[in-house]
Amino acid sequence: MSIWLKSTSHYKVPFAIILASLAAIFGMGYLQGGEQAAQGVLDYSIRQIAFQFPIGLLVIFVASRIIEFDFGTIVTISLKVLAIAAFCLAISVAMFVFAGQPENSLITAAINFVAFLFLVMILFGTSGLETWIIAALSVAIPYGLNHYVYPAVKGQLENKPAATAPERGRRR
User: Fold this and answer.
1) What would the pLDDT profile of 60-99 be if each residue is shown by its tens digit?
2) Alpha-carbon torsion 51, 53, 57, 60, what sign?
3) 116 close to 138: Cβ distance less than 8 angstroms
4) Count of structural domains, the chain
5) Residue 93 is inside which H or E element, if any?
6) For labeling, which of 11, 24, 84, 87 is most exposed (least CB within 10 Å)?
7) pLDDT of 112 above 60
8) 93-122: string of b/e by CB count within 10 Å (b at 16+)?
9) Using one digit for the tens of pLDDT, what is the confidence trace for 115-130?
10) How far apart are CA 139 and CA 50, in angstroms?
């Protein structure tokens, strides 16, 4: 597949997407409310990306085991996952700034999903089926973590008695 985003370097394109996405997010925040708003949007974006990053790594790790595909070194995988997360977040911010759509609206989710599929195909070099497997895992793993793992861990933490010091006898 010969496409303009395809590069022989696995570092240049993801790094450029990350920088362009963060610059666009900062710029859109600045357009909305000046420097203070730009800083707030950028802080929010960094927190969102930091939340999405470990889940993205987990998705790629599970996908590599399922489809027996080598996605590269951990550094290249990390850069590509960060690029996808930053780009999709830039789309969400753009939809809010220019179209007034909230981050969780259906149209924003649909556009982000198409961008996600495109970037996974381009950056990781996957075929159609492999891309759909990654997409399914990117929905299933956070859902499973949120609905099955988190309640189980929370229940165990709530049932665990607090650590207290053993009572000692009084000395006279």
Assistant:
1) 888 888 888 778 788 888 899 999 999 999 998 888 888 8
2) positive
3) yes
4) 1
5) helix 74-99
6) 11
7) yes
8) bbbbbeeebeeeeeebeebbeeebbebbbb
9) 988 988 888 888 888 8
10) 17
- Residue 166 within a domain: no
pLDDT-based confidence at residue 1 (cuts at 50, 70, 90)? very low
Nearest Cα neighbor of 126 from 41, 61, 63 is: 63
Q: Two tokens at 45?
A: 């974006």
Task: Specify if 93 maps to a domain.
Answer: yes
User: Which pair of structure tokens corresponds to residue 68?
Assistant: 């027996």
Domain range holding 77? Answer: 12-159
Interhelix angle 12-67/106-124, nearest 10 degrees:
90
CA distance 82 to 12: 13
Residues in the chain: 172
* C-alpha to C-alpha distance for 36 and 29, rounded to whole angstroms: 8
CB 87 within 8 A of CB 47: no
Instruction: Examine residue 19 and state whether it is found in any structural domain, yes or no.
Output: yes
Radius of gyration for the chain, computed over Cα atoms and rounded to the nearest angstrom: 21
Find where tokens 């008695």 sit: 161
